[in-house]
Amino acid sequence: MAKGSGGTRGAAGGGKSRFANIPGLQAIQDTKLRNEIISALDDYEKEFGVRLENISLAKLKDNVGGETYYKDKILLNSKVFTTSDNVKAVMKSAYDTGLLNKTNSPLKHIMVHELAHATWTPGYKSSNKSAQKEVLSAYRKFLKDSSAKGWGAYSKSKYTEFFAEAVAKHMYGTKDKHTQAVADIIKKYKL
Ligand SMILES: [Zn+2]
Q1: Ligand 1 mean position to 111 CA, how many Å?
Q2: Cα(134)–Cα(158) distance, rounded to whole angstroms?
Q3: In 3D, which of 98, 78, 99, 96 has the Cα closest to residue 33?
Q4: Distance 8 CA to ligand 1 centre (A)
Q5: Rounded distance from Cα 1 to ligand 1 centre (Å)
Q6: What total number of domains does the chain contain?
Q7: Model confidence pLDDT, tens digit, residues 52-110
Q8: Ligand 1 centre and the CA of 23: distance in Å?
Q9: Does a structural domain hold residue 9?
């Protein structure tokens, strides 16, 4: 977050969260939706630390599952992030088709998935070569493990999606040795 933009915490938004005043989130009219996003940021902060707070709505392609990310910001699809119920409906279809691993918090799932990408993606400024080697190794072990349960197809598409889905599963779904491996890498390298 740019210096100077974080000095009004608590002044608006009602919550005590330091994320309550992220400028880009003020465009979200549905208070419930905004509060759930802030709550996901708080959860991530507690677990791993949040290092990117530039989050805003944007017009994205329809086929983007709700949000995307760039080097220094997270963009939430403005067509999806209209209300809390709408985000949940979009996530429900991703759960029903087996694309994403199920969690008990679909809205927070999508947020921490993108936060995971934002904090570490190869080629980004947060890129860490040693971490990359370890994520790749964890991914290969995961692919070989036929007993791994509750994982969606997306986590098997590439190691960066495995990484992001592992974070969501670790925080809001069923933890296992693969989610733990990813959590350990994040903590080890302070990703
Ligand atoms: Zn992703």
Answers
A1: 10
A2: 14
A3: 78
A4: 31
A5: 22
A6: 1
A7: 888 999 888 876 655 666 667 889 999 999 999 999 999 999 999 999 999 999 999 99
A8: 23
A9: no
